[in-house]
Design goal:
alpha+beta; two-stranded antiparallel sheet; single chain; globular
């Protein structure tokens, strides 16, 4: 199962192939604290008045709503979770 979860998957996007982000791989990385949280992400988190535990909880309980090809910083996806208020953010 580990190999299957970490195998690079490809998806077609107009005129190019890109890696599909897998929510299960994301969850595994968050649980193991094996991710990089860049400075610009921290600035966005603070601007949106979110705590780091809220971000991690969203990644652990959310679902991928949209996948995006390389937007200048690599592939990304929009992760969404429903709460009493809706929290969604883009993951790169």
């Amino acid at each position: 199962m580990w190999a299957a979860a970490h195998r690079k998957r490809q998806a077609f996007y107009p005129s190019k192939l890109y890696r599909v982000m897998d929510i299960e791989v994301i969850k595994t990385k968050v649980r193991a604290n094996e991710y990089i949280y860049p400075h610009h992400a921290d600035l966005e988190r603070r601007a949106d008045d979110l705590t780091l535990p809220q971000v991690e909880d969203t990644l652990l309980t959310g679902e991928i709503l949209e996948q995006y090809p390389d937007t200048g910083r690599g592939e990304s996806c929009l992760v969404l979770v429903f709460r009493t208020s809706c929290i969604g953010f883009e993951l790169r």
